[in-house]
Amino acid sequence: MKNVEAVIAQKYNFRFSKYGAVPEASLWFSQDRQFMRFKLIADVLDQAIKGSSFSISDIGCGYGALLPYLKKRFPNSEFTYNGFDIAEKPLNFCKKNYKWPNVFYRTGNLPDRYSDFCVMSGTYNYAPVLSPKQWQDYLFENLTQIWKFTRLSMIFNLSVADEARITNQNISYFNKDNVKNFCENNLGRTNLFLSEKLPKEVTFHISKV
Asked: Cα–Cα distance between 132 and 165 in angstroms, integer?
């Protein structure tokens, strides 16, 4: 999978060089849709956070848009943030622009330390080269590894369709029941969250408690 990850990193490095720190660089249609996804994640976090301090790993953090959103959403919380990405250019942007206390950035597609929450927003949307089955296997392998570094719960969103597919633009759609069954059988308690404004997407919350 390293070759596939190299292709993905190259794509996001190219788009960041072309567009800069905007949603288009991360293959999002608009900031409004990006913030809708962030709101769903933050709503789940709001219910799951125990106390005023917590830690979070943002896997596939891109140019770091989730961090300032969380800062505004949880102004009275003290949290440690770890951002991970395989694309160096957006990651270097984060390192230069978010030099905040308890904020750390590292290169990689998997966390290397424990966090209360592990979050992936749009991380598995772009799927070059592989078939839908191979990409699903890649997703499940990553979820399994990320789960090992998760203390409380894991939150991620996916584009979904009745039949798993990858478009001509290499955008992946998963069968939500397949993903739910895998998470329930191999990870933990699984809840799905939907939004009328994002009808082709699902936010998954996998809990250890």
From this structure: 5
Q: For each successive 10 residues of the chain (209 residues), what is the average pLDDT?
A: 87 92 80 91 93 94 96 94 97 96 97 98 92 97 98 98 96 98 98 94 95
What whole-number distance in Å separates Cα of residue 62 and Cα of residue 175? 25
Q: Which of 86, 92, 88 is nearest to 59 (CA)?
A: 86
Give the CATH superfamily of 2-207.
Vaccinia Virus protein VP39 (3.40.50.150)
Q: What single string gives the DSSP state of each residue in 9-22?
A: HHHHHHHHHHH-SS
pTM for the model: 0.94
The amino acid that residue 87 corresponds to is A
